[in-house]
Specification:
Structural class: alpha/beta
Strand content: 15-25%
Order of helices and strands: HEHHHEEHEEHEHEEEEEEEHH
Largest sheet: 5 strands, antiparallel
Strand order of the largest sheet: 8-9-12-11-13
Distance between the termini: 41 Å
C-alpha cells in the first residue's frame, strides 16, 4: 500500500504532464452552492406553477423513481416531437389532455428555473442549516474553490507553460470555471468572440490545436447558463441583467439524449466533433 507522501508525489507528477484535459462534473460546483442533480430537481419543481407543475408531476409518475430534471426534460422533448406530428397537436399525461403549446411552455419554464437556480445558487436545508436561495439581488454562488483549483494547477508551471496545453471538459451549466480562469488572468477559448456579449463562431475549439499562451479551451457539453438563442436564431454568450436578453427560457442547456437533431446543430455539433 502506498503512503500518503507517495500518493502526493505521483499526483505532482501528473500535474506536470505537458498535455492535460480535465473533466469536471456536477460535484465540482457543490462547494460553490450550486446544487447537485436531485437537489436541483426538487428546487426546479418547487419553482413551477400550474399547469407546468401538474404536467411535470404526471411525467414523473411515468418515469423511474430515480429520475431527475434532465430525464424530465428528455421526456418532454420526446413528447413535443411526437405531439407535433399528430392531428390534434395534443397528448395525454395521465388523465390530462395537454396541448403542444403547453408542453413547449412547460419545457421553457423548466429551462428558466434551471438557469435561475444555477446563476444565483441554491443550497437545500441540511444538518440544521436553513435553506439558502440565491437571487439577482442576493446571489450566493461562491468561486473560491474554483479559483484555488486554477491557482494550484498553474502554480508550478511557470517554466512549462510554453510547451504545455491544458484544456477543460465540463458537463456543468455554470460559468465558474471560465470566471476563475479570468480572475487568474487567463483567456477562455469557448467558441465565442466578443466582450460581455459574445457571438458564436466555433473556431479554436480543438484542444489538439495550438492555442496562445495563458489561453485554455473549455468544452461545455451540456451548454451554459450564459448561452442564449436570440430571436433571430443567433447563438450568443451574455452575462446577466440586460433587458434585451432577459428571457431565461432561451438559455441553451442540455440537448436531450434522444433529441438527435439538437446535437447536429451548433454549438453542440461543433463541440461534440
Amino acid at each position: 500500500m502506498k503512503t500518503l507522501a507517495e500518493g502526493v508525489e505521483e499526483l505532482q507528477k501528473l500535474l506536470e504532464v505537458s498535455t492535460q484535459l480535465w473533466l469536471l462534473g456536477a460535484g465540482a460546483s457543490f462547494d460553490a452552492k450550486i446544487p447537485l442533480m436531485y437537489s436541483l430537481t426538487n428546487r426546479v419543481r418547487s419553482m413551477l406553477v400550474a399547469p407546468f407543475s401538474t404536467n411535470v408531476s404526471e411525467i414523473v409518475n411515468e418515469l423511474p423513481s430515480d429520475c431527475h430534471i434532465e430525464h424530465i426534460l428528455s421526456h418532454i422533448g420526446d413528447l413535443i416531437a411526437i405531439t407535433s406530428r399528430t392531428k390534434t397537436k395534443s397528448t395525454k399525461l395521465g388523465a390530462l389532455d395537454v396541448s403542444l403549446d403547453e408542453l413547449q411552455q412547460t419545457h421553457r419554464a423548466i429551462i428558466s428555473a434551471i438557469a435561475t437556480t444555477i446563476r444565483y445558487g441554491y443550497r437545500e436545508a441540511s444538518g440544521g442549516n436553513p435553506e439558502e436561495i440565491g437571487s439577482l439581488t442576493n446571489p450566493i454562488v461562491e468561486i473560491e474553490s474554483h479559483k484555488n483549483f486554477i491557482r494550484q494547477l498553474f502554480k508550478a508551471r511557470s517554466n512549462l507553460e510554453g510547451r504545455s496545453s491544458i484544456s477543460f471538459l465540463t458537463t456543468n451549466y455554470d460559468t465558474l470555471l471560465e470566471d476563475a480562469l479570468a480572475l487568474e488572468q487567463r483567456q477562455t477559448i469557448d467558441g465565442f468572440v466578443g466582450g460581455s456579449i459574445g457571438y458564436w463562431t466555433g473556431h479554436g475549439l480543438d484542444p489538439a490545436h495550438a492555442v496562445p499562451p495563458k489561453s485554455h479551451v473549455i468544452l461545455k457539453l451540456h451548454g451554459s447558463v450564459d448561452w442564449l438563442r436570440s430571436e433571430s436564431g443567433t447563438l450568443l454568450r451574455s452575462r446577466y441583467g440586460t433587458k434585451y436578453l432577459s428571457n431565461l427560457s432561451d438559455t441553451l442547456i442540455y440537448p436531450q439524449a434522444t433529441k438527435y437533431v439538437e446535437t447536429q446543430k451548433d454549438p453542440f455539433a461543433n463541440i461534440f466533433n
